[in-house]
Amino acid sequence: MFDAILSSYSGTQISILQQIYRNHKITRAELTKATGFQLLTVTKTVSRLLADGLIVERDHQQSTGGRKAALLSINPDFRYTLAVDLGATCARIGVVGMDGSVLDFEIIPSKTRDGKMVLPAQHLSVQELREKLAAEIEKYGREKILGVGIGISGVVHTSTGQIIFCPNIAGWNDVDVEKELAEPLGVPVFADTAARCMALAEYKLGAGKGVENQVCISIGASVAAGILIGGKIYRGADEAAGEIGHTTVRTDGKRCTCGNNGCLELYVTLPMLTGKAEELLPGFGGFSPLRTALQGRGRPTPEELRAAAAKGDKLALRILSDCAETIGTAVSYLTNILNPTLIVLGGATIEQFPELVDDVARIAARRGFTVTQQHLAVRPYALGTTSAMVGAALQVIDSLF
Ligand SMILES: [Zn+2]
To answer: How far is the CA of 261 from the centre of ligand 1 (A)?
Structure first.
């Protein structure tokens, strides 16, 4: 994808650069040990990489005596990557440095009707995104932009750059990323499922740093998982691995948009939780802070549901405990099949109800097979709402090295 950028460097020099990228911070002595090259070769290469602006010498290693060794890392400002996260609640467009740091980002919220989420969500058409990206490329200069990374709530064929299934965002089903974005913009564009981008970001910089076997589950307006096996993203034969949102959790459940009945995402997304409150409240007797807060309105906002639960509203608490039970059960399926050491939970549902994480951990431990659970940890994502955006950029940056 980026042959021209490193074309003047030898294989040895590129190996040294790759080692600096993978280690984030490394001394010259550690580089010599890790690559097996002579110290002189390493020193000369480092000097050239420093002069060319590819790496920087920033911090110094703590030392018990003598001179402190300088730590080398990739220059975060060498190139910028434009990162896009297309979800159902909003679109995010950001500028990300070579180290995954977010320099700037913009949120474009999805249009709502009477304050309620509309599906398929409407925020950016392909043309509007192209125009926004073109403006950013113009602002920084094409030579400064490494590429564009897109994480989308949908199924993507990464090998051909085709978004093949995106039912929750209007205008993004069946989009040829290469033709619609990469060619007109004149920069490489890489698209993948948002949950996978999130998994990569959490693995490299977030809650799952360095944990090679982990699954990151994004629970927002839909549910999907990014699976890492041996530190590599697992995409599956048809690049649809991780579509856990369409796993049956109620055999006699409601009809899902996918054609199946009783899918996980019918029970645990924010619109489903608030919808359930609206459905059950009229038949719920007794003390109800939720009823008082709504004053006759039908559906609560996620914030109102949260506030009611905090006041001990029994219906709100029951909805949340059912949600944890359902997610925890689905997590136990995943852990029984994949035996990861970490499950990372993220997305709008977790943002709004972070206490679900501990409940899910408890339920997964109870329902999962003992041996697959023995080393399992369940944690919330660390990079929060920028996680998928950062991961989308990292997919591009990784391919340079
Ligand atoms: Zn489904």
So the answer is: 7
Pairing verdict, β 189-193 and 214-219: unpaired
Task: Give tens-digit pLDDT for 270-328.
Answer: 999 999 999 999 999 888 999 999 988 889 999 999 999 999 999 999 999 999 999 99
Read off the CATH number of the domain in which 36 is found.
1.10.10.10
Determine the distance separating the centroid of ligand 1 and the alpha carbon of 312, expressed in angstroms: 32
Task: Give me ligand 1 centre to Cα 346, in Å.
Answer: 20
Residue 197 has what pLDDT? 98
CATH number of the domain bearing residue 241: 3.30.420.40
Full residue range of the structural domain in which residue 294 is found:
208-381
Residue where a domain stops, chosen among 74, 96, 120: 74
Give the distance (Å) from ligand 1 centre to CA of residue 397. Answer: 33
Looking at the structure, tell me whether residues 213 and 195 fall in a common domain: no
Tally helices (H) and strands (E) across the chain: 17, 17
Are the C-beta atoms of residues 52 and 8 closer than 8 Å to each other?
Answer: no
pLDDT at residue number 65: 61
CA dist list (Å): 210 to 46, 96, 346, 358: 25, 21, 18, 22
Positive/negative CA dihedral, 377, 380, 384, 389: positive
CA of 60 to the centre of ligand 1 (A): 52
Last residue of a domain, one of 74, 104, 121: 74
Ligand 1 center to residue 331 CA distance, Å? Answer: 17
- Residue 80, number of CB atoms within 10 A of its CB: 24
Q: In angstroms, rounded to a whole number, what is the distance separating the alpha carbons of residues 124 and 111?
A: 10
CA 112 to centroid of ligand 1, rounded, Å? 23
Ligand 1 centroid from CA 349, angstroms: 18
CA–centroid distance, 2 to ligand 1, in Å, is: 38
CA 287 / ligand 1 centre spacing (Å): 35
- Cα of 224 to ligand 1 centre, how many Å? 11
Within this chain, do residues 232 and 196 fall inside the same structural domain, yes or no? no
For residue 266, how far is its CA from the centre of ligand 1 (angstroms)? 8
Specify the number of domains making up the chain.
3
Q: Are residues 250 and 287 part of one domain?
A: yes
